[in-house]
Amino acid sequence: MWKFIVRRLLITSPQIIFLSLLVFVLASFMPGDALTGAIGPDVKAERLAELREELGFNDPWYIQYKDWVAGILQGSLGESFQYKMDVEDLIWQRVINTFWLSLVSVIFIYAIGLPLGILSGRYNDTLLDQLITGYTYIGFATPIFIFGLVALWIFGYILGWFPTGGSVDPGVESGSIEYILSKLQHLLLPGLSIALIGTVSTVQYLRSEIIDTKQKDFILTARAKGASERRVYNRHIFRNSILPIAAFFGYEIINLINGTIFIEQIFSYPGMGQLFLDSIVIRDYTVVTALVLLTGIGAIVGALLSDIILSLVDPRIRIK
Amino acid sequence: MSENHSHKDIEQQVSEQQKEQEVQKSPSGLRIFWREILKDKLALISLIFFVLVSMIVFGISLILDLDEVVKIDPFAIHQPPSDEFLLGTDKGGRDVFGQLIIGTRNSLAIGFLVTLISGAFGIIFGVVSGYFGGHIDNFLMRIVDFFMVLPFIMIIIVFVTIVPRYSVWTFSLIMSAFIWMGIARLIRSKALQERELDYAQASRTLGSSHTSIIFKQVLPNITSLVVVTMTLNLAANIGIESGLSFLGFGLPEDTPSLGTLMSYATNPTTLEERWWIWAPAAALILVLMLAVRNVGEALKRAADARQRRA
Amino acid sequence: MTLLKVEDLKVHFPIRGGILNRKIDAIRAVDGVNFEIEPGETYGLVGESGSGKTTTGKAVMGLNNITNGEIYFGDELLNKGNKVNIRKDIQMIFQDPYSSLNPRKRVIDIIAEPLRNYENLSKDEEKKRVKDLLEKVGLTAESMLKYPHEFSGGQRQRIGVARAIALEPKLIIMDEPVSALDVSVQAQVLNFMQDLQKELNLTYLFISHDLSVVKHMCDRIGIMYNGRYVEEGTTKEIFNDPQHIYTKRLVAAIPDIDPKNRKENTNFREQVKEEYTNSYYDYFDEDGLAYQLKPITDTHRVALPERG
Amino acid sequence: MSKSLFGKFLFVLMLAFVLLIAACNSDEGGEDSSDNDGDDTEQNESDDDDSDSDSDSDQELYSIDDFESYTGEGDAIDGGSLTFGLVSQSPFEGTLNWQFYSGNPDSQVLSWFDESLLQYDENYNVTNEGAASYEVNEEDSSITFTIEDDVKWHDGEEVTAEDWAYSYEVIMHPDYDGVRGSSAGFAYLEGAQEYKAGEADSISGIEIEGEKTITFNYTELTPSLLTGGVWGYPMAKHVFEDIPVEDMASSPEVREEPIGFGPYKVENVVPGESVTYSKFEDYWRGEPNLDEVTLKVVSPSNVANALETGDVDLVDSFPADQVVDNIDMPNVQWLGMTDLAYTYIGFKLGDWNADEGEVNYKGDEMKMGDKKLRKAMWYAVDNETVGERFYNGLRWNGTTLIPPSHPAWHDDSIETPTYDEDKANELLDDAGYKDTNDDGYRETPDGEELVINFASMDSSDLSEPLANYYIQAWDKVGLNVQKLDGRLHEFNSFYDKVGQTGEDDPNVDVFMGAWSVGYDVDPSGLYGRDALFNFTRWANEENDELLAEGLSEEAFDTEYRQDVYSQWQELMVEEVPVFPTLYRAMMVPANERVVNYDISVGSGVYLYELGVTQEEPVVE
């Protein structure tokens, strides 16, 4: 197993290098730079030119890339020009928010998806199943930004049940119960928005998996041997269908990130997605590069994780 | 082949199930599709609806004067629907109905283009990879792996900020460049199976070139998979396009898409009070995507003999 | 003059592993095989599955990369470089009549495929040739516009034959051509192939696991085990005077239809089996591989260890 | 997969929804026409939307003159707390130090807990009302400042002359990487460049004359020094002393526990999102009124809602495109002032000579070289209508390049072109721009096709409609104007194209952007011969002279300076390298309970006086 992991890691390292190169080259083609935003009558152009030279904005991209790699080797992702702080600290601040959002979403995805999938699969072709399938039909067709927007409108504005922006109420003592509750309250609506759309594939997968498994011989045998229906479902069918779902989680990471970009924008939630869009606009290259890279690594690690789980679950996949 | 990547394995598992229908593969795949759709009323309605909308939209946009639609009228800002403006006007006094028509056309056009471009590329890539196998496959799949882990929304956004002048075409190209991998992978695993079948080997003993085998022998055998995947991709691509436009990284306002109209709803007053600007666009996106998916699902069933209704 | 000469043919498939996915070992599917085929004869290649017989056939056909060895067709070395050239003089008939015909193609397209590759025929000429070929294999001209799934297995195999003879090859490699067919059809197809052989002056390389079929079809037989030859000889020699214990066992296993001999047969099989178990290590080396072939007569060679 | 009845049902439902919308429209269309007949009594409840928007389309007009910048005095309760909304799509950066901050959001956070030692009047001249008073010594070109005795940092230390000098040393430090340090107060300061180059250990022009007294020696005196030129923010030396300059911006002293000497001190910072302040009892002007202030980021799309629900009491600014929709909000009072900014349309008249460091005015060589053409384009646009229809009067026709936010310098007596299509046509005909090939567009006097490329900055929701509207207007007088690259440009690529680095995109002929104006009225940073940001690349000698005179020592005489700038404004109207399109109002909503607050500068109302009339925000 460790060989498998090490080999996967070896394969992924060129991917990461390519990714960083790609982002760097792209970033160097973007019009403007981090100093464009400072233009105004109070700031002398000479000062900006000076700074450009000092900060190396004028260097060709490969020089900048070299410096950046050198920085990484020393454990630094560089400094954000806009925020005047180390990129890793800045991203950490936001990643933690996105992490909570993703976590809540994932919890909801499974908390909603598993029961619905099981119900739908167990009682297939009943009214309940049709309701659930109907939901997955709509859910599949609904782009997340439309759903998020409408959810914000209805539950945030019209009903006023949820806050319409931010990640926590101001002034709440960090670490207190109130703080956690406030955080949760801010997470609920965006998290639900992601989950209600994101869970659809889980429901569908689970449903068809269960319907499939139901007719497999070992289930029929179990039934024939007199196992109770509940036992059949809990011990045999569920366990058989659930593992692949757990394994697919890793692949889901990239979708989750794509989802958070929209949701964070709509709910003004200060996470990575928002940081990314802002940094694009103000040309905070170090941040853009770091974020894309980090996301890429996240996706790679996610895929790796899934592969490992899958190979544990299904020995056929394991490789020598 | 030697490199085992588990996506592949999952696909193989899936395709094992398909194997049984392999044997019954009949030449009239498209006819089966058609029969399945006729049988499935929902899919039929969806198809008719989709074709109708496409025809209306492309038809009207032929006679609609784009300049007139995007003409700014400071004396008609934010008009509610009326006889003059069927769906009211937006912040620039522009006719929303006209924009909806043009926007649907653009969204559909981009959806089609992206599906075709990314589909064509993905198919060729996948079929070559799967057909040749070995080192070629290994190398090509590393490329796919690389693209798979790209946070494609982010990269597309970066790209869009770079390209100085973009149109429906360039935008479609940019999008296609980052979403061809799924289909490539699917086709590859299919092609891997196909190439092991004797008919492909037979063709080689008969002196057919690789190109001819790929295009004349293998490809026709995976059309059903291609059709199904492309249909489902079409729905997804319309969604991605409108999402990007919504974020402001899609087409410029002068070339409205459904996402552009949606993005007006980021203004809370528009969201709350001027439903006529965004709600029709939202509904249209939903219904279009539903319709395309319905058709796609029906096709999928048709391709999978076990689930066929017809 | 020999038509096909295979010298020291080796086909190895790498086993990869380790962190860098390097080649760490190889499956020796074919490991040093020599044989010759004379024009006009039917040469049988026999062995259980995994013995390397199909791989050998495909290597001759050029469908496998060969690791080592030479294949001469007439005077010509086929494997210049590493890849074996495909010659239109060699054709192949596949085991599975279902998968060997492209289900999306009409019969005319299937049979005309080699013609289109090698000969520039007009549409009408092509049609005529296909019609002739179909008639030659006993199918009607109407079959031309049908799809493979509209035919029975035996008919399909005939289509496969029609395709194979379209280019008027000298050598046809048959890879278990009837094993996928009903027994009732098997004999029919085999007889038809024999007739065809005479009519077109063909040479067959007949690959099979079924000794009774081989006995019926072949002039000479080579027996493979684990990628190597254990014995080669004329049909008579192999069946009447098997030298290698493996061959003996194979021959003994042929079912006899006459019920009178049943008891006798059973006893004989028991004996052979016992001998096989007892003397296994006399006939195979410590890796379970066959030894080098030693000629016994001009035509008969057996893989036996150096004695004394 | 089994067929789902429900799925089918939903699909039909969606279809019905679409049809319904279509049906609704025709219905409402009908009602609308009957509205016109005058019987709108029949409208039922479901038409509420409709009637709202009807009043919308009636386009109520407002004027900046209708609004006060002051909430007025009221019966403020003792103490109380207030929530301040920082309107921003993105979190604030959190560089909470005047020396290092780079965006407006941070400056909003800063102004609650730290302030300048200098106080300005309504014309942005330094007064002696602030924490420091000044005295100009004309003989040796120096200015001496004296800090009030009881000005203390939040940690109780005195704010000293040393602190003030220290902020100069930090900004001019070779390792300093912020954008400040180019205003007159640094540029004219003796010894500053030597210090910056690392040739001197201290700035020779700064003399500390006592604990609270400091003298700055300048190479020459210019009025700019006292209109924003002198850097008035001290930096707590006892806090920062031991931190290397390059690490200061990311230090916790800047980001987490910043101190200042303003009326409120920072209690807690949630990075990027919110800050809580408590009152600083030893504030030098007196004890602040409020006990506590909370600042939090509110996104532009949420701010109206946040105000309505009392979630925030006060905001730093309000999205211009939403003002009119919310102006009737019942629990809110609207404060207004003329913004220090204007929108403009500029013409490319040359390029940048990087070697000389000055503009290379090419005049007639350029497509837009003809003054009459430029003027005609000014006449062709109807800024009045734009202001009224798009901004309901909260932006209005701009006249000169010094906006009325600087009442002392803005000359409203100057005649400037206003919308007159005939006049525009006449000017174009005169100049020889005629449609010679009947394609509906005018050709150049040489008979060549004239396509004018228009680069417009994408800065707000209305950018696109406005740009299109201007293009339509020019189209009406026969000018073929096209958007550069067929779209608007977000600010990065806009500034790249107009030449922020000196490499102008040769395709740009006309561009539309906006400038904010500093306290100092001196326009040479934007229109001087050696100004890189003079994107028109226009210059002439009269301009050079006037701009120089405006900064001369004589210009300390306000009347003299006024006259110089009047002449300059007139010159720019005459030459039209740039014409202003819109002036703008800054509108700030405040909850009804907020009193003693003034958004303008120099009103004599200070932040520590801010109060509330009741404990809880007024909600509808």
Secondary structure layout:
The complex is a heterotetramer of chains A (320), B (310), C (308) and D (620).
Chain B: H1 6-23, H2 29-39, H3 41-63, H4 66-69, H5 96-132, H6 134-149, H7 152-162, H8 168-177, H9 181-196, H10 198-205, H11 210-221, H12 223-247, H13 258-263, H14 268-273, H15 275-303
Helix pairs in contact in B: 1-9, 2-15, 3-5, 3-15, 5-6, 5-8, 5-9, 5-12, 6-9, 10-11, 12-15
Chain C: E1 4-17, E2 22-37, E3 42-46, H1 53-61, E4 68-73, E5 76-77, E6 90-93, H2 107-118, H3 123-136, H4 153-165, E7 171-175, H5 183-200, E8 203-208, H6 211-217, E9 220-225, E10 228-234, H7 235-240, H8 245-252, H9 262-283, E11 293-295, E12 301-303
Parallel strand pairs in C: 3-8, 3-9, 6-7, 7-8
Antiparallel strand pairs in C: 1-2, 1-4, 4-5, 9-10, 10-12, 11-12
Helix pairs in contact in C: 2-3, 2-4, 3-4, 8-9
Chain D: H1 5-37, H2 48-57, E1 81-87, H3 104-113, E2 119-120, E3 126-127, E4 132-137, E5 142-147, H4 161-171, H5 184-187, H6 192-196, E6 206-208, E7 213-217, H7 237-240, H8 245-248, H9 252-255, E8 264-270, E9 274-279, E10 292-298, H10 303-308, E11 314-315, H11 320-326, E12 332-347, E13 350-353, E14 358-361, H12 371-380, H13 383-391, E15 395-397, H14 421-431, E16 451-456, H15 463-476, E17 480-483, H16 491-498, E18 510-516, H17 524-527, H18 541-550, H19 558-575, E19 578-591, E20 594-595, E21 611-612
Parallel strand pairs in D: 1-10, 1-11, 16-17, 16-18
Antiparallel strand pairs in D: 2-3, 4-5, 5-7, 6-7, 8-9, 9-10, 12-18, 12-19, 13-14, 15-19, 20-21
Helix pairs in contact in D: 12-14, 18-19
